[in-house]
Every structure is written in C-alpha cells, then in structure tokens.
Write a structure and sequence with these properties.
Distance between the termini: 71 Å
Strand content: 15-25%
Oligomer: single chain
Largest sheet: 7 strands, mixed
CATH class of the largest domain: Alpha Beta
Radius of gyration: 25 Å
Order of helices and strands: HHHHHHEEHEEHEEEHH
Shape: elongated
Number of strands: 7
C-alpha cells in the first residue's frame, strides 16, 4: 500500500530529474574544488546561507541585496574561470580535419628542423611555438612583434644568448615568425620530471591551453623535445623531429595523397 502511494507521488521522471540536478551540482562543486575557485565556492556558500536566513525572517531589503550579489557572483565565476571555460569549449568544438600545408610550409618545417639541429649541437636553448587551428595570442604575454619569414639564420639569431630576444618563445603563424620573446603559461603537471625547468614547463603549458605544437631545445643537454596536447615527447633527433612535425602539421597526409 505504501509502495503504491509512493509510486503515485514519485515517478521515474522525477527520479531522473533529481539525479540530473544532483549530477550537475556535483560537477559544479568538483570543478570549483579542483581549480582555483575553492575560495569562491566558500564565499558562494556563505552568501547562500545568509540569503536563506534573510528569506526566512522576511528581511526584504537584505534579500534583494543578496539576490543582486548572487547574480554578480555567477558573472564573476564566468570571468574568473574564463580560461577553463574556453579550454572546454575548444575541446568540444575541436576540428577533426587537419589543414593540409603547402609546399612552402613544408620548407618552413625543414628550416625549423635545421635550426634546431644547429642549436642542439651547440646547446643553445630554444622554445618554438607553431600555431595550428587555435589562436595563441590570448594567452601569451610580453611579446615583441617580428612578422618575418621563417629562416634558419633568424631563428638561431633570436635564440643566441647574446641577443635581447633569446629569453622567451617565438610564435610561428603559417610561414612567418609572428612574435619573439613571448612569455607562455607554465604547466603545473606533476608528470614532468623535476630536471626540466621553465622552458619545458612553458612548452607543456601552451600545449595544454591550445592545440599548438611547441618545440624545445634544452640549454643544458641539447635535447630536442616536442610538447603537444599536454604531453612532452623527449629525446628526438632531427629526423624524428621532422617526421613528428610532419604528422602533427598534416604533411604526412599531404604526401600520401
């Protein structure tokens, strides 16, 4: 008898509705806790408690204030978590088709490989960011505009320790060096060995935030690495670097067709 009454009052649709709301709340709280928003979560909970109390004792003016503050708080969450939201949207709308590069861009890749070979042999540190589909300008700082054709000599000159632009990354857009001396977001992943410093963490960081490919030459060992999709591929020789860039930038598909 009790079961029949419960069934009348509580349908399967109600159960799905409750579970969906619970899942949404759990995902929201988890998102705030695992990111930098834990303090914001505590503030929102505190405001919510005061708002409920104000409603219970019928403090109309205070309730109105809390209603406006709550709206402002939700807007602040969107602003604060703009990088995380942007990254999630990029993942959702990420293109599956690789843009095929022209023969001129193939020569650009070859120049990057030759420059990395030269710097690796002489242990000249370098960080080269190759933009793909997503614009990286929103998350890089301190850049010096270059807008010059990619050449072996120019890349080596920029990263030579005696030049003022060597401390930072260069950004390559298409077949041109767009910026030099760029400051990139640093990765906080624990997967990266402690022996790798700022240059490698910056390479992994830009690959976590965007779909760009970052090539790193170690100043200490001359080791060549590639950072892509938050992973660091290490100990590459020039031939391996050429092949990997060909795969990541669509050259292999273009040659096969």
């Amino acid at each position: 008898m009790d079961f029949k009454i419960l069934k009348e009052l509580f349908s399967l649709r109600d159960l799905i509705d409750i579970l969906a709301v619970a899942l949404f709340i759990y995902a929201f709280i988890y998102f705030l806790v695992v990111t930098k928003g834990f303090q914001i979560l505590r503030i929102l909970i505190l405001v919510g408690i005061f708002w409920v109390v104000a409603e219970l004792v019928q403090l109309k003016t205070l309730s109105w204030v809390f209603e406006k503050v709550w709206t402002l708080g939700l807007f602040s969450v969107v602003v604060v978590f703009q990088p995380e939201i942007r990254r999630a949207l990029v993942k959702i709308g990420e293109r599956t088709k690789v843009i095929k590069l022209t023969s001129l861009e193939e020569r650009t890749v070859e120049r990057i490989v030759r420059a990395c070979r030269f710097m690796s042999d002489r242990q000249i540190g370098a960080l080269i960011v190759i933009e793909r589909h997503q614009n990286v300008e929103d998350i890089i700082e301190g850049c010096v505009p270059i807008d010059a054709a990619v050449s072996v000599e120019l890349i080596i000159t920029i990263f030579h320790p005696t030049t003022p632009l060597h401390d930072g990354a260069i950004v390559i857009k298409g077949e041109r060096i767009a910026f030099a001396s760029c400051v990139l977001p640093l990765s906080k992943t624990a997967k990266l060995p402690k022996k790798y410093g700022t240059r490698h963490r910056a390479a992994v960081g830009i690959s976590e935030e965007t779909d760009a490919v970052a090539v790193v030459v170690s100043e200490e060992t001359g080791e060549i690495s590639i950072a892509v999709e938050g992973n660091l591929e290490r100990n590459l020789d020039p031939e391996m670097l050429r092949d990997r860039l060909g795969e990541l930038l669509g050259l292999k598909e273009d040659e096969g067709s």
